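Appendix C. Worked example: Nuclear transport factor 2 family protein
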Amino acid sequence: MSMTEKEQILICEAKFLRAMASGDLALLDSLLDSRLVFHIPSGQFMTKEMDLENFRSVPMKMHQISSEEPIISVFEGVSIVSVVVHLNAEYSGKPVQGKFRHIRIWKKSRENAWKVIGGSGIMLQ
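Step 2, the predicted output written as structure tokens:
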């Protein structure tokens, strides 16, 4: 029995968090589309290359990352995920802690693989 697109996206989301937690650049590279448009909580615009370079060059220590409350809308070949992310990390020696609402837009590629094409994150109070 084949998986639904929603089940596929849940697996992709878990891979995405695992890649971030472990700093697995190869896995991140495989999950991000080359045309990625993303806004981090500070409002800064990021492309795929900027995001990967950030992981390569800035010292980041992930102490804990988890997600909850996924809301997934599936369309033909596109899925939108809204999720709450709990983060406890150090970024360039500075603590980054909190609860964030992230939205990620996944698109199925020609190779039938899901890739993040866009998204945004905001800090929750």
